[in-house]
Design brief:
By secondary structure, the protein is an alpha+beta fold. It has helices at about 5-10, 30-50, 50-60, 130-145, and strands spanning about 10-15, 60-70, 80-90, 95-105, 110-120, 125. It contains 4 helices and 6 strands, in the order H-E-H-H-E-E-E-E-E-H. Strands 1, 2, 3, 4, 5 and 6 form a 6-stranded antiparallel β-sheet that branches. The protein is globular and about 45 Å long.
């Protein structure tokens, strides 16, 4: 997959500067840090969709149920990464996320991940149905791909 294709197929691209302190004793970015990179992409996508305002106003929003990451190539400092993120609604309460991490230094894909989020009522402490306004935004994301 090339950079142009990623830019066309993914809803959000989050730029991340690799920090020296993110590397481990093996002199590459520690595997746990990739999950934080994916989190940055996920939050940027949620903000674009208006999901974070629902959390502050209605106390409902996504909660992470599952996450996985495949490591394709080691990353080292210095580098700038692009985390490409998109989402698909897969049920009345579920949203699947897809992430690709691109290294500008290596000019290649270095990791990819998937996440499952469930819509959650933070006051009632239980899952809830995704609001129609957000459902419409997921549909628009799917159409734009």
């Amino acid at each position: 997959m090339d950079l142009h294709t990623l830019q066309q197929q993914y809803s959000v691209a989050t730029e991340i500067k690799v920090k020296w302190g993110e590397m481990d004793a093996f002199q590459h970015v520690n595997n746990t840090v990739y999950i934080r990179y994916i989190e940055d992409g996920r939050i940027d996508l949620f903000e674009k969709l208006g999901m974070t305002s629902d959390m502050s106003e209605l106390h409902i929003g996504p909660i992470l149920a599952s996450i996985q990451c495949d490591y394709l190539a080691p990353v080292t400092y210095p580098d700038t990464l692009l985390v490409f993120s998109t989402a698909t609604q897969t049920g009345a309460k579920k949203v699947e996320l897809d992430h690709k991490i691109w290294s500008t230094r290596q000019n290649r894909l270095v990791a990819q991940g998937k996440g499952l989020n469930v819509y959650y009522d933070y006051k009632a402490l239980k899952s809830c149905v995704i609001p129609d306004s957000i459902v419409a935004k997921f549909a628009a994301l799917s159409e734009s791909k």
